[in-house]
Amino acid sequence: MKKKGSSFESGTNRTLSWLIKNAILPEESAPVLYPERVKVSKGWLVGLEQGLAVREGASIRITWQPNAWQGSGRDEDSLFVIAYAPGSKRVYTLYKGNYRKAGVQVLDLPWSEPELGQVFVYVAFYAQDGCVREFSDSICLGKI
Q1: Pick from 2, 11, 108, 130: CA 20 to 30 A from residue 88's CA?
Q2: CA proximity to 31, closest of 43, 23, 39
């Protein structure tokens, strides 16, 4: 597969295109967003394997199988996380999480438990090479 570009804009465009085609579907002549189908990143980096998100009060524990050196994955790839609470319309982003080799990330959300409601958790890895970031395809770990 040949890379078409590694700039932020090209990754954003790929993700937006995928979102429009796969996560927004017509229902009774109106567009409906399906959050579990949303991707927040698309890229060529190896993604998260055996991911699991578990609520622990106002925190979320995310675990995965460290898969460094599989394809393009490396120990030092960082986790990128978005937590979206549709009920309260809140979003929390962790831009630089633990390394791929860690296999675990605890996300301490800045909201209290009653405000939280159910949360969609989206995760991806990224590799930083100078000013360039390469992302994996994100996955939704579900509504917890």
Answers
A1: 11
A2: 23
CB 44 within 8 A of CB 72: yes
Beta carbons within 10 angstroms of residue 116's beta carbon: 19
Within 10 angstroms of residue 113's Cβ, the number of other Cβ atoms is 11
C-alpha torsion sign, points 105, 106, 111, 115: positive
Helix ranges (H only) for the chain are 8-22, 113-116
Phi, psi of 14 (to 5 degrees): -60, -45
Q: Give the residue among 96, 115, 36, 118 at the shortest CA–CA distance from 107.
A: 96
* Other C-beta atoms lying within 10 Å of the C-beta of residue 19: 16
The pLDDT tens digits for 68-92 are: 878 888 999 999 999 988 888 888 9
Rg (CA), the chain: 16
Pick from 106, 108, 93, 102: nearest CA to 138? 93
| pLDDT for the residue numbered 3 | 47
